[in-house]
Design goal:
It is built from eight helices and no strands. By secondary structure, it is mostly helical.
Length: about 160
């Protein structure tokens, strides 16, 4: 037996966190807690539509500086990536799934495709253009034929770039 094993001791932490959670929860069930959370998100959706407009404006502005920024680093270390990543999460949370999907695809291009790729800037421009078209056409519903066509085209574009 080694010296270390003689002086070591296994400690099992208490597992009473669930009990503490139950006492703090004021007697509501998990289902009720989830319903309350969903109601809170629903109440914030209207506020987020205004914030989304500002976020997209910021995204478009960061695209203006993108080529200078990417020349000094890679696509993932840019404001464009940071903003598209932020919008991807928030838009999805608040029901703007189409915007979230476009931003997710943009994040993939920025993080997975070499900035030296011949179609790199064009692909990013396509994503920015897609977001502008979705807003202009008010095609933010996933069932919109315009939204479906845009998502399909961006998915194809990104897949082709990965294989080139």
């Amino acid at each position: 037996m080694s010296e270390r094993s003689k002086t070591s001791k296994i400690v099992t932490p208490p597992t009473n966190l669930r009990d503490k959670l139950r006492s703090v929860s004021s007697g509501i069930s998990e289902r009720e807690a989830i319903e309350r959370a969903n109601q809170a998100i629903d109440s914030l959706k209207n506020d987020y539509s205004k914030a989304l407009a500002k976020d997209l404006s910021d995204l478009f502005e960061s695209f203006q500086n993108f080529e200078t920024e990417v020349a000094r680093s890679n696509g993932k270390d840019t404001q464009l990536f940071a903003k598209s990543f932020e919008i991807k999460g928030l838009a999805g949370t608040f029901g703007y799934d189409v915007v979230s999907q476009v931003c997710a695809s943009l994040c993939q291009v920025l993080s997975e495709i070499n900035p030296q790729h011949a179609q790199y800037i064009a692909a990013i421009e396509s994503h920015i253009g897609a977001l502008r078209a979705l807003i202009q056409e008010k095609a933010l519903d996933q069932n919109s034929p315009i939204a479906q066509a845009i998502i399909r085209e961006l998915t194809t574009l990104t897949a082709k770039m990965r294989t080139m």
